[in-house]
Automatic annotation (TrEMBL):
Keywords: Plant defense
Domain Disease resistance protein At4g27190-like leucine-rich repeats per the UniProt entry, residue ranges: 134-229, 310-422, 514-636, 642-746
Protein name: Disease resistance protein At4g27190-like leucine-rich repeats domain-containing protein
Stored InterPro entries: At4g27190-like_LRR, LRR_dom_sf, Plant_NBS-LRR
Entry's transmembrane regions: none
Pfam families according to UniProt: LRR_RPS2
Lineage of producing organism: Eukaryota, Viridiplantae, Streptophyta, Embryophyta, Tracheophyta
Length: 800
């Protein structure tokens, strides 16, 4: 509260800052009670700097702000906050329910403002003419939003020609439902010359952004983003029928995003006259839904044709658009996704000059109609020798990816990923020319090859060929049932090598000996068992993923895993195994990850020998194993406790989405008197999530069996049968615990279980968690206390 008449007495005041503070101005003039009124500010004749928010524009004195402020940030009307970059010294945000023409003081501010926000300003169909007829000579940033009245930002037919927005740097237009044109009429040459950022979204009546004459002014445009304009048909409309040879150059444009423009046909389009008898509200260019207009369309109409140039474009993002074809030489990154009618990416016909594309990264996703990335083999006229990464997914009708000549030029390619596509071969056989009798595809820089869920894949190339992968480090070929993955060159009696008639996807002799990550399936284990290829080719392997295993895979798995004792990480995913390890070995494995092994009932066989297995295991992750009831088995499964001591180097345990898991640590049958060292002495991170049946972390007091002396981090979320976490005796050992996070556990009542007989007879009068710094509790409807026992709880390091 600011008492009435207090401000008017500060006659020498030069600066008044009231951002994020007082905004309860009285409507009347100066009086002796209640809050301060805006009329008091008229008495501050020396005021040069002002920050103020006025929620009700109706209480503005007519001549307020007419005394020459030099610096200001003023918010008028509701719905505003103080967020912003504040790069300028004069900022104004307006939301007027009444006509702006009656506010003389505000119009004075508008002439000087540098950063202007307009929201629902009445009486302004044309921003430049109706709000400021001088062209906003000082304005650097303009943001217009949520308006149903504005038809034009500039209407040059209503005002004397002058430079419009000569120093404007950014223009943002949002939710202008009646906006028909940004610029109507001819602009002076000095207009928009400094514009660097243009963002337009949710302008439903807008059919184009600029005329050709306006586009000529955009010399500094760096960023253009157009989103959710359902009737947008072109970005630049060419009103001059004689300008066919003029190329519009956006030489400074670095980033272009076009999203949600279902009727966009071309970046630049001619203004067309409607055929006789056709009534359309889009007279400027062709519409997509009126067949009579289709005869105007060129057969080679492209989204980006030769009449526009982007010599320095670095980032192109296209989403939810139709009927597009693209030509770019200097583009480095191309992302295309969710364009449901797109059938072709690059159309390269009709050129006879050798061009080298600078594209480095190509990402194509969810294009259900895509038939070709490159429709015809350019035969060396176009090359993509700079391409380093290609990622393609969810393109159902795409039959192949590269023409042969382009595949031969990919000497810099480092990553190739294809997921869930209709691809039958990676490289297409030339159709219009005689294919070479023999191809050699070399990928000297490729380190990652992933081919996943390609049910129709039959070969890398349908003709005679070899492919070389001398730097390959990561190989994942999964659920590609029609292709043979590995093969060997055939050796004849005279010692000559030849390519097998039925060519595999990869020849082992042509692969890198330094492969570090490999995915194998059941059929691959059978091939190894039958001697079709040796695992000696993968002697540097560090990460082994086993996918689509079956119960009968156990026959091959035992001997196979003994042979890969150098592997550090084993991942088992999407398999039907009921048990996993029933053998010794794997002494170097540090990480074991199980994903979606639905039928897995136990990780270790009850007949395991006494010799420790997985004795170096540091991380165990279990996810989506819905038949597991416990993670760490009890002594009833392992009669000799030494068998369980393979977990004594375990540092991180993560269990998620296991619907049947009731207990994490099954301690049934274990006793403090067994004379063994405590289990899990190195465990520092425990993460349990989405375990609906989990009732206990352990099924008996772990004192003397599990003590968690090194536990630092505990996360539990979405475990709706769990009532508490620690017993009182276990909590006494949590000397290193630093962070506890519990969320969305509907039955959790407390973190440390209420006292039992041990606590009642203990001489300890307090419980100390000396290292605990962070406790995060969220959505625990039955939570009553951290600890409800009789001992005092001290957390001396707690921060939040």
């Amino acid at each position: 509260m600011i008492p009435a008449n207090a401000l008017s007495k500060l006659s020498q005041l030069e600066a008044l800052y009231m951002s994020n503070s007082f905004d309860r101005w009285e409507a009347d003039g100066i009086r002796n009670q209640g809050n301060a009124s805006l009329a008091e500010l008229e008495y501050l004749s020396h005021l040069m700097t002002l920050e103020i928010q006025i929620l009700d524009a109706n209480i503005l004195p007519k001549h307020l702000f007419s005394n020459g402020l030099q610096s200001y940030r003023i918010l008028i009307g509701d719905g505003w906050d103080w967020n912003g970059n504040y790069e300028t010294s004069r900022m104004l945000k307006l939301n007027f329910k009444t006509s702006i023409h009656s506010e003389y003081g505000v119009k004075v501010l508008l002439r000087e403002t540098e950063d202007l926000y307009l929201d629902e300003v009445r009486g302004a169909e044309n921003v430049l003419y109706d709000i400021d007829g001088d062209g906003f000579p000082q304005l650097k940033h303009l943001h217009v939003q949520n308006n149903t009245v504005i038809q034009h930002i500039i209407n040059s037919t209503k005002w004397a020609a002058c430079d419009a927005f000569p120093i404007l740097e950014s223009l943002i237009l949002e939710n202008l439902m009646n906006l028909e044109k940004i610029c109507h009429g001819q602009l002076a040459a000095g207009s928009f010359n400094k514009l660097g950022i243009l963002e337009v979204s949710n302008c439903n009546r807008l059919t184009n952004l600029f005329s050709l004459s306006t586009a000529r002014c955009l010399l500094q445009l760096r960023v253009m983003e157009v989103r959710s304009c359902p009737n947008m048909e072109a970005i630049v409309i060419d009103e001059d029928q004689d300008s066919n040879e003029e190329v519009v150059e956006f030489n400074q444009l670095r980033s272009l995003k076009l999203d949600g423009l279902p009727h966009l046909r071309s970046f630049r389009s001619k203004m067309k006259k409607a055929p006789p008898g056709i009534e359309s509200r889009h007279k400027q260019i062709l519409t997509a839904d009126e067949p009579a207009f289709e005869e105007f369309l060129s057969e080679e109409l492209s989204l980006f044709n030769r009449m526009v140039a982007f010599s320095n474009l670095e980032n192109l993002n296209l989403r939810e658009m139709n009927d597009m074809k693209k030509r770019f030489q200097r583009l480095e990154k191309l992302n295309v996704d969710n364009c449901f009618s797109l059938q072709e990416i690059y159309q390269l016909e009709g050129f006879n000059v050798i061009e080298a594309f600078e594209l480095r990264k190509l990402s194509i996703k969810s294009l259900p109609s895509l038939k070709h990335v490159w429709r015809k083999d350019p035969q060396g006229v176009f090359t993509f020798q700079n391409l380093k990464s290609v990622e393609v997914s969810n393109c159902d009708v795409l039959k192949n990816l590269f023409p042969a000549s382009i595949a031969e030029s990919l000497l810099q390619l480092e990553n190739l990923t294809i997921i869930e596509c209709g691809v039958e071969e990676i490289v297409a056989k030339p159709e219009d020319v005689e294919p070479a009798p023999y191809y050699c595809f070399k990928f000297p820089q490729l380190t990652s090859l992933k081919l996943i869920e390609l049910s129709e894949l039959r070969s890398f190339y349908p003709g005679t060929h070899i492919s070389e992968w001398q730097k390959l480090k990561c190989l994942e070929v999964r659920n590609c049932r029609k292709v043979r993955k590995f093969g060997l060159e055939e050796v004849h009696e005279e010692g000559q090598h030849s390519i097998p008639i039925q060519q595999p996807l990869l020849l082992l002799e042509k692969m890198s000996p330094n492969l570090e990550e490999l995915t194998l399936e059941h059929k691959d284990l059978i091939a190894i068992q039958h001697g079709q290829f040796s695992f000696q080719h993968f002697s540097k392997l560090k990460v082994l993923t086993l996918s689509n295993l079956q119960n009968r895979s156990q026959i091959f798995l035992i001997g196979f895993l003994k042979a890969v004792h150098y592997v550090e990480t084993i991942v088992v995913e999407s398999s039907n195994l009921e048990e996993l390890f029933s053998c010794e070995g794997f002494t170097l494995v540090r990480n074991l990850k199980l994903f979606n092994v639905d039928n897995l009932k136990q990780i270790w066989d009850e007949d395991s020998r006494l010799k420790p297995v997985l004795q170096h295991l540091e991380t165990l992750s279990v996810n989506g194993c819905n038949s597991l009831t416990n993670i760490v088995p009890s002594s009833s499964s392992f009669p000799n406790l030494a068998t369980l001591e393979f977990l004594n180097k375990l540092e991180k345990l993560q269990v998620e989405y296991c619907d049947s898991a009731e207990i994490v640590f099954d301690l049934e049958g274990l006793s403090v008197d067994d004379g063994h060292t405590e289990l899990l002495p190195q465990l520092s991170k425990l993460h349990l999530a989405n375990l609906p049946m989990l009732r206990y972390l352990w099924n008996k007091d772990p004192l003397g069996i599990l003590e968690f002396n090194n536990l630092r981090l505990l996360h539990v979320e979405n475990c709706n049968s769990l009532k508490n976490i620690f017993t009182w005796s276990t909590a006494l050992c949590l000397m290193q615990l630093e962070q506890i996070k519990l969320s969305n556990c509907n039955t959790i009542e407390e973190i440390i279980e209420k006292e039992g007989p041990e606590e009642a007879t203990s001489s300890a009068d307090k419980m100390i968690l000396p290292s605990l710094k962070f406790v995060d509790l969220e959505c625990l409807p039955k939570f009553s206390s951290f600890y409800s026992g009789s001992s005092n709880l001290e957390c001396l390091s707690l921060k939040s």
